[in-house]
Design goal:
alpha+beta, signal, 20 strands, developmental protein, 393 residues, Lipocalin, secreted, 3 helices, Gal_Oxase/kelch_b-propeller, glycoprotein, 2 domains, 4-stranded antiparallel sheet
Length: 393
């Protein structure tokens, strides 16, 4: 196409080009307008967020100032309380110096000698039973291993006379804190002591011969060469009574449990104490205890040897001694001594316990449940007993 033809077309194309240019400008203006609107919205939102953040900051600062004032007030109260406690402690110390506390246990030597003389007068006499209980152990019907708790030695039990379902746990042979679980379920399911209450005793115990009976804890305390039976009220956490056990030169009652000098046991007849002295160091002795006054009502020399004995309990007025070997084997009841004379020695059953883990550090008979709560090398076990009638002599 020649140049002259292009010149002829220019007048025809000019209006179309102007129209396209106008549309493009309008499009650019619309886009710019939208962009300006978005910038304006962002600016408004940013201003609003900044205002809210400033308000929140002021609110937090106010709360922090209030908290600091409360902390200062609490610190001032704590310091004031500490000053009052110090003043009170000084006053108590002064009162104690002016009025010294009486000894924990006053031993009336004359009264103790009288009790010993009265008990010895009745020593080895035939016992007049208080109940019509005429059962003895025939065999161990069942064994239930509940769990493993605490150290290798200890004891666990229920109240031997009351109806409470609480479980009392004494961990170790020398301690002063008793764990109390509300029921068997809590003791069985939880490996720790977080479900247990703690009772802090006024004096530490020794051995594993303690007993819970009719709402009271009867436990053994060593004071020099002598041993005391402490009666402790579990409800109000106080010592109700205490008594020096009237036996001279005591030795461990069980050959395989050297930490236990007195074993307090309960049966259908009441409370008993199993012990040993140097006077007859080969065999055990048995005493009937008054649960109210802790007096010794009667004493017996038994034919049951201490050697290789690991525990003992009383059932219907008959002492049952459990034996083992130095290398723990199968425990068995091999000596039975009936204080009422209604059980012929040859008719007493030789009762074997199922094979377990080691040796028993405690065996607690429950007369209301007819079962034994045992502690075996840290395992807590229940033995259910099969009973039979005594064959009278």
């Amino acid at each position: 196409m020649g140049p002259w033809r292009c010149l002829l077309l220019l007048p025809l194309l000019a209006p179309a080009l102007r129209a396209q240019q106008q549309q493009f400008m309008e499009y650019v203006e619309r886009r710019l307008t939208l962009l300006e609107e978005r910038i304006s919205q962002w600016h408004d939102q940013s201003s609003r967020y900044s205002t809210e953040l400033r308000d929140f900051k002021n609110q937090v600062l106010g709360m922090l100032e209030a908290a600091e004032k409360e902390r200062e007030a609490m610190r001032a109260e704590a310091e004031s309380a500490a000053v009052r406690v110090d003043r009170l402690e000084r006053e108590v110390d002064y009162l104690e110096t002016q009025n010294p506390a009486p000894p924990c246990v006053e031993v009336d030597e004359t009264l103790m000698d009288k009790q010993v003389a009265t008990a010895k007068q009745r020593k080895n006499e035939k016992y007049t039973k208080l109940t019509d209980c005429s059962d003895t152990i025939a065999s161990v019907r069942a064994m239930k291993i509940l769990k493993r708790f605490g150290s290798s030695s200890g004891l666990w039990t229920k109240d031997a006379a009351g109806s409470s379902e609480k479980i009392y746990v004494f961990d170790g042979t020398a301690n002063d804190t008793v764990y109390v679980f509300p029921r068997m379920r809590e003791f069985t399911l939880f490996s720790s002591t977080r479900k247990a209450a703690r009772i802090k005793l006024p004096y530490p115990w020794v051995g594993t011969g303690h007993l819970v009976y009719d709402g009271h804890l009867y436990y053994i305390r060593q004071q020099g060469p002598s041993f005391q039976v402490i009666k402790f009220n579990l409800a109000n956490k106080t010592v109700v009574d205490s008594s020096v056990f009237p036996a001279e030169e005591q030795i461990p009652v069980f050959g395989l449990s050297p930490s236990t000098y007195i074993e307090v046991s309960a049966d259908e007849e009441g409370l008993w104490a199993i012990y040993a002295t140097k006077e007859d160091e080969k065999n055990m002795c048995l005493a009937k205890l008054d649960p109210d006054s802790l007096d010794i009502e009667q004493m017996w020399d038994t034919p049951c040897p201490r050697e290789n004995a690991e525990g003992a309990f009383v059932v219907c007025g008959a002492l049952h001694v459990v034996y083992n070997t130095r290398l723990p084997s199968r425990a068995r009841v091999q000596c039975v001594f009936d204080v009422s004379g209604t059980l012929a020695p040859e008719d007493a059953s030789l009762v074997y316990f199922p094979k377990r883990y080691g040796s028993h550090s405690s065996l607690k008979y429950s007369p209301r449940e007819r079962q034994i709560y045992a502690w075996d090398d840290g395992y807590q076990i229940i033995y259910r007993m099969e009973m039979k009638k005594k064959v009278e002599v």
